[in-house]
Design goal:
Blueprint: E1 2-3, H1 17-20, H2 35-60, E2 62-71, E3 74-85, E4 88-95, E5 102-106, E6 109-113, E7 119-123, E8 144-154, E9 157-166, E10 173-179, E11 185-191, E12 197-209, E13 235-237, E14 245-253, E15 259-266, E16 271-277, E17 286-290, E18 293-300, E19 303-309, H3 313-321, E20 323-325
Parallel strand pairs: 1-17
Antiparallel strand pairs: 2-3, 2-12, 3-4, 4-5, 5-6, 6-7, 8-9, 9-10, 10-11, 11-12, 13-20, 14-15, 15-16, 16-19, 17-18, 18-19
């Protein structure tokens, strides 16, 4: 499998890193209500409360800490400074190992300083470094098991552990270690359906600072809770991977005047994007990866299609396998 040369910023947990390289429910039918049903309802409520507190913590706390990021058997250390200033999140991420790299984000832009000292500025794309917005356990139960996995101790602090575990091999899930006092996620594991970690992000030390009391303003509607939509486009997607729905479609204008169509699909936790471009000169065919981010490309009717997401390779392959272009309407037909 190829390695991606220029990964796109498409997911909560790898959104910042793209700058360096260029976010048990259910009662069985027929089962009478009883103690077990009551315990399941209590657990479901407890998980929902923890996830809601986690989202609030990410938007309201001021803190600074050292993180380690484990991926592809590589370990990176970083310093993260996070503060809320008059309702706006400001983040500063600096590498502590390897080449000197820095990422500073504020409002809708992310400024990245690459190892050669060259700064670049990119759109934030709606995600924070720790993105916990829009996770609704009730919307996930068809494709994920939602479980309390016990307790742990991270960075010297007590934490409750929640698992959002995939029911199939078409998506990845998460294991969150949520600080018992502040509800900030102190550790996040990206996991497969066997709960094996693919990537791990963990604070080794953290210090909380007094806040000005403001909560960060929402930056639009979270993709995870966006309503399903139909594309205002001639492109259609048959046999979309089960559970995934189209929630966003827009045109991206390029400097040369051309247009790339962007479609985003989500199962309310995981997400992938499909990009369609008329420029096929340097077309990408097949599958490529960088860590847990996979991409699949193909050419069709003079267009280049690329699907990218923090999902398994089979998912991005299926995402474009059923794509087809509707014929142009005859202007003579009214």
């Amino acid at each position: 499998m190829k390695q991606l040369d220029k990964p796109r910023c498409l997911t909560p947990w790898l959104g910042v890193f793209c700058c360096w390289l260029s976010l048990v429910h259910g009662v069985y039918a027929g089962e009478p209500p009883g103690a077990e049903a009551g315990e399941a309802a209590d657990t479901s409520h407890q998980i929902a409360v923890l996830l809601s507190r986690m989202a609030d913590a990410v938007r309201s706390l001021d803190y600074e800490g050292t993180l380690v990021y484990l991926h592809e058997n590589r370990l990176e250390a970083m310093n993260l400074q996070h503060r809320i200033d008059r309702g706006q999140v400001q983040e500063r991420l600096i590498s502590l190992s390897g080449p000197v790299r820095a990422v500073v984000s504020a409002q809708e832009r992310v400024m990245c300083v690459l190892p050669d000292g060259h700064p670049i500025s990119v759109d934030r794309g709606g995600s924070r470094f720790l993105d916990a917005e829009g996770i609704d356990p009730d919307a996930l139960v068809d494709h994920y098991r939602i479980e309390l996995l016990g307790t742990a101790r991270i960075a010297g602090r007590d934490a409750d552990v929640i698992g959002l575990i995939p029911r199939d091999a078409l998506r990845y899930g998460y294991r969150f270690h949520i600080d018992r006092e502040t509800a900030l996620p102190l550790k996040s594991d990206l996991i497969d359906q066997n709960q094996d970690p693919l990537e791990q992000l963990m604070f080794t030390s953290i210090q909380f600072h007094p806040s000005d009391g403001d909560v960060a303003d929402p930056q639009g509607q979270p993709i995870r809770s966006a309503p399903a939509t139909s594309p205002a486009s001639r492109w259609r997607f048959a046999d979309v991977p089960p559970g995934f729905e189209l929630v966003m479609h827009h045109d991206m204008q390029q400097p040369d005047g051309s247009t790339i169509e962007h479609f985003m699909f989500t199962d309310r936790l995981s997400a992938y994007s499909v990009y369609i471009d008329q420029d096929t000169e340097n077309g990408f065919e097949g599958v490529a990866s960088i860590g847990a981010v996979h991409a699949a490309g193909r050419s069709l009717d003079g267009y280049q299609l690329v699907a990218v997401g923090e999902v398994p390779a089979t998912t991005v392959q299926a995402a474009i396998a059923g794509a087809h272009l509707l014929p142009e309407a005859d202007p003579r037909v009214q």
